Amino acid sequence: MTSQLEAAEPAAQAAGPGDERPTRRGTLQYALSKAGGALFSIAMVIVGTFFVFRLLPGDPVRNLAQGRNMTPEQLDLERHRLGLDKPLIDQFFQFVGDTLRLDLGTSYEYKRPVLDMIGERIGPTLLLAGTGLVIAVSLGIWQGTRAGWRHGSRFDRFSTGASLVLWSVPTFWLGLLLMMVFGVGIGPIPGVLPFRGIESVDAPDGFAYFIDVGSHMVLPCLTLVAVVYAQYLLVMRSSLLEEVSQDYVTVARAKGLRDDEVRRRHAVPNALLPTVTLVFMRIGFVVGGAVTVETIFTWPGLGQLFYEAISVPDFTLMQGTFMLITVAVIVMNTLADVVYRMLDPRVRSA
After folding, report:
1. Cα-based angle 301, 198, 306 (whole degrees, multiple of 5)
2. What is the pLDDT of residue 3?
3. Structural domain boundaries in the chain
4. Selected residue with higher pLDDT from 22 and 216
């Protein structure tokens, strides 16, 4: 990025400081256009969410009545209470109106407001998925930088190969394998790590409680990191390989700068730009957690809540959690576009 800014500096000085205002105005217009596109996408999500979940097989009223001898009249009363006896178009307009008022409805299964249930589950999800994201990004950028700068080395071949293997492994299979080895244990070797829930039944108080929660996070967090960090490694490695061949890197080396300084001060800042976009995109998915990982390890987050809603099926709970996840992804993607334009002068001049 340093080289591009230095190249653009003479033109900016020739044009004068007054030309900064059009640039800022262009960035604002770009941000507003992206925000408008995001609002349109959210509107489409609201419409699509209602109809898509109505296509799922199964009658929620009959599923709720399992284990209870309910007469057809009682089933009709329950269907009326849930509003499922109304015409589909009436249900749709009521759904849209409630959503605009931030009323996500009441869960069929739990008889509780969906928004309250989401509020209870979002904390564990942010703890697990957020921690996994930080570790995956840090590990991926570090390995990608070393692999790209020393292209063809043993470290490059090993780290790239290992990350691709882990990326191709199904998440549920890796989670079950880690659970079997480190949780349940193999043969006479006992498991050493907890693998169910977020805390022990007899969880201690004080600092020991954080240790207990941390021990429960190890296996699900390791599963998350193992299957996603390859994305950051590969993007960072590819981006750095492109920057190494640029003229400004050759000039920096010709000036006598040390190899570490050329990498740290010139090549890496430019190579980070695509990775920044990927990180923002992944932040949106952090809100939704990881359905597979949370289900395997019974982690009480939004992913597990969404799985429970599908199992019933609970239309209102599915709609609420799905919309939250989708809106978070749309917002983060929009923010990534704006931030990338602000960071990279080449995008602003395009």
Report:
1. 20
2. 43
3. 113-333
4. 216
